[in-house]
Amino acid sequence: MADNILKFSLNRATNVEKLDHGNLLSVCHLRDTFTEAEIRMVVKMPELEIAEISGHFRHIYLDGIDNLDDSLKKVLGVRVGAGMLKIIKGLLGEAENLDQIVYMVEECCHGVILHLTKKVLLKAPDDPAGRQEFYSEMVKKSIRLYDRCAAFAKGSPLVASLEAEKRAGGRF
Amino acid sequence: MISEFNRNKIIDVALLDEKTLAVHGILNDSIYSLELDFKVNLSDLVCFEIEGRWLRYTTPECPQALNFLAQAEGFCLALGIEEKIHKTVGRTSCRHFANLLIECAYAVRETAKLIRYQEAQVHNPELTWQEFLLGESETGSNFSQKAAEDTEDASVAVSVAAPATGEPAKRLPTPATGKSGAFIIDMHMHTAPASPCASDSVEAMIAKAQRIGLHGICLTDHNYLWSAADIRSLRKKFTFPVFRANEIVTEQGDMLVYGFYDDVQGIIKLSELKKRVQAAGGFIVAAHPFRGFLTFGADDIGLTPEKARSREMFQLVDGVETLNGKVTATENGLAREVAEGLKLPATGGSDAHDSSSVGLYATAFTRPINNEVELLAALKTGDYQPIKFR
Lengths: 172, 390
Prior knowledge:
The longest helix of chain A has 23 residues, at 99-121. Chain A is elongated. Chain A is built from five helices and four strands, in the order ββββααααα. Chain A is 34% helix and 25% strand. Chain A folds into two domains: 10-118, 2-Layer Sandwich (Enolase-like, domain 1), CATH 3.30.390; 124-167, no CATH class. In chain A, strand 2 (24-32) and strand 3 (35-44) form a beta hairpin. Chain A is α+β, with helices and mostly antiparallel strands. By secondary structure, chain B is an alpha/beta fold. Chain B folds into two domains: 7-151, no CATH class; 183-388, TIM Barrel (Alpha-Beta Barrel). Chain B has twelve helices and 13 strands. Chain B has helices spanning 82-93, 95-123, 129-139, 144-151, 202-212, 228-238, 270-280, 298-301, 305-309, 313-316, 329-342, 372-381, and strands spanning 3-17, 20-29, 33-41, 47-56, 183-189, 216-219, 242-250, 253-258, 283-286, 319-324, 346-349, 361-365, 384-388. In chain B, the strands form two sheets. Chain B has a nine-stranded mixed β-sheet with strand order 11-10-9-8-7-6-5-12-13. In chain B, helix 1 (82-93) runs antiparallel to helix 2. Chain B is elongated. Chains A and B meet through strand 1, helix 2, helix 3 and helix 4 of A and strand 1, strand 2, helix 1, helix 2 and helix 3 of B. Strand 1 of chain A pairs antiparallel with strand 1 of chain B.
């Protein structure tokens, strides 16, 4: 069997660019064997609220979505941030032909968050000791990072000083 | 026009042999670059032999994530596996590997469907997608049962109690106040299994609250309404004030709702919730209104209290939670500045999801509170303040 011939391939690209007045445009484009779809979203800054959204969706076996732009308008005003995923799913619904749309709206939001994260990460020092301290301070400042991935797991060198503060009776 | 951030994901699925798919995924963005390779049984969509690689990462400890990818071996990648991937790979390994694995799972499902369609076409070259899908739905070839089994331990099903009317104004034996005369209630906490994200039982939470000297607690499980009978039973068992409330998801974020006993499920518009709560005489508090992000805060994006006050949400709520145990000091500080600026009353609560966090923050009322009627009345007076309890 020709195992070098692909059965299925997927390309998903998400791009974030800055608009006038500091607002952000986030675009997620999907092209796979069955699908061609795009979601375009403008996020108002610094409120981080979804201010404009539109899109299109074509799929080989799923029905098209009538008035997709009208459906997408349900998420206008939603704040990009913690807890947004359940809100987006709840507002757009869980019909099979909306699964990808929901996912792509989330990807646009993740793109915005990662763009803002990148700006913070650019402040990390180059030297190993400095980097260690930078990330140790980051988890102290944002306790929700603690024990939420391998890098910030209990016992990791990056959380050593936080855990020491915890043992000493600190808030954490 | 400069692209400030870009993320590209490429997933390839090949047929390794008649029974096995080979999956290769790449996630390459402005911050991270990583890859996944694994195999999948076509018969049941179970994945195995998972290998990951980092090409670029951030912290010096990120490479540790590779040691935890094997936890996903044996997962059935049918629809519905996403939550389990988030909770295992995302939390113990890395959320970016989880993101890529979820993308791969989608590609695997589509590939399996394509292969079944092509096999069916061998016998019926004229078979359309619609005819094929109709046959699939009739024969149930969608692996949903296995996926459901796989996700059983990722989310706990809870049965929602029937809506109850307001609790009768029944007094507890000896309502206590602290040395300062304040009556201190943790106004925000979650219990298992009522809140799928919580890990300790209501009994464990009450026991901890009693042990640390709180005067009462308010159960605010997500879109879950405790019955008045259950609360009466808990109050009697522990001889301790336990009150009912609800944390309801709106399009503008989570809202703590007191004195409102409708069973609200799913997402509700805040304006609609406001109408219903107002009609019932209840009280809405914006929960952690500036709960932010893992690596940046309001200060990093230039969100000032003045700008924040203009959010529509603050025109619709009765109060603001300005001390929440799950957010940063900066985020609590911004909430406090907004509440002060708008002259909205402020509450405090731990937002505990396990007993270790109970009572981190609470609300100090000026007089003892015996029941939910008194709690609601006290909330409306504004005669209380959020406090750091321990």
